[in-house]
Structure formats: C-alpha cells, structure tokens
Please model this.
Amino acid sequence: MKIVIIEDERDLAELLAFNLEKEGWQTIIALDGRTGFERVTTELPDMVILDLMLPEMSGIEVCKLLRKQERTAAIPIIMVTAKGEEIDRVVGFEVGADDYLVKPFSSRELLLRIKAILRRSNPEVKSDKCLVIGSLTIDPSRHRVSVDDEEIILTSTEYKLLSTLAERPGRVQSRERLLQDVWGYSSDADTRTVDTHITRLRGKLGAAGDMIVTVRGFGYKMECR
Model:
C-alpha cells in the first residue's frame, strides 16, 4: 500500500513515514500543500495523511481539490492538525476528510485509524446481491453506488455509512451506533462526525438523499420514498 504524507514539519513527516514503513507500506513525503496535491494526483496512493496548516496551499484546499477530481475523489484522507477546536474538525469532514487526528497523537492511534479505514475500503462481501431502494442501487461486489443508473463516487466512509443504513431499512440507528459500526469509535466520540458525513452523503445522492431520514434527538434511518 502506498501512502502520501503531506506535512510541513519534516521531523514529524519522517517519523510518520518510518512507522508506516515498518508496517510494510510505501510512503511519499510532501512538505507543502501544492507539492502534496501534485504527488497525490500523479501517484494515486491508497491513502493520504494531510496536515491542515500547510504552506503554498492549505490542507482544506488540497482536500477540496482531491474530492473534485474523479481519479482522486475516493482516496481515503486522514487530516491531522495541531488545532483541536470542534469547528476545525467539522470543516475537515465537510470538505471530505474520512478521519481527523489532533496533534500530538501516538503512532499506534494513527495505525489503528488507517487500518479502520482500510477495512471500510475493502469490506468482506457478505452477499454479491445488489441492494435496491427506490432509485438507489448498491452493488457490494463492485463497491459501486448508483442513482437512476448514474454512478455516484463516494469515499470509503460514505459508502460504509450508506450501506449500513441501507442494510437496516426502517430501523433507526443512533449516532453512537453508527460511530461504532462505521468508524469503529467508542460511544464517547464526537457525534458531529456522523452529522457532517450524512450531510455530504445526502448532497452526493441528490434527490435520493431524501431517503436518509433524520430522527430528531436520536439518529437516522433509511426509508424508501
């Protein structure tokens, strides 16, 4: 697996690379946002570790641009930053980050987050039968989602979130349950993570996004409308 590390602190970038390479993964380091964006678009890695505050181009801008391009739209992104305010986490998720880590963090925590995302990207296929709900079709064998036969490009996290709701039609899923089942987080994690990803998912699905129903004060459910 190939991982691009976009981090302007050279010592931290090299430490991350060292620990990831011990796991058998190939790493590429970029010390500014513009170079990092270029390396991702040319190398097409399996994952990106992206600092928020970068010279040349911010991590937010890099994330936005990667999500706009079809070739890079589904590459998992873990955003890392020294900022820990809720608004920074929300902005990171709104522009398409799959996960968020606040510095300082341990190598073990980063590895756990990476492995959790990889599990979402390469799920065990329980059935190769397509799941059809209204105009929405989920093909687990191809890891493909379409609305009215038009393919919708989702990140691995968005796909897992949608599949989890679709596999439990009509059943209300609490935010805490979704955090556990999709992200693998404990119940004391920030539930705004779920809300932000639901908003992005609805936007990508268009009219079909209305099938994801908010149950006020509790969570979400999928209903055919």
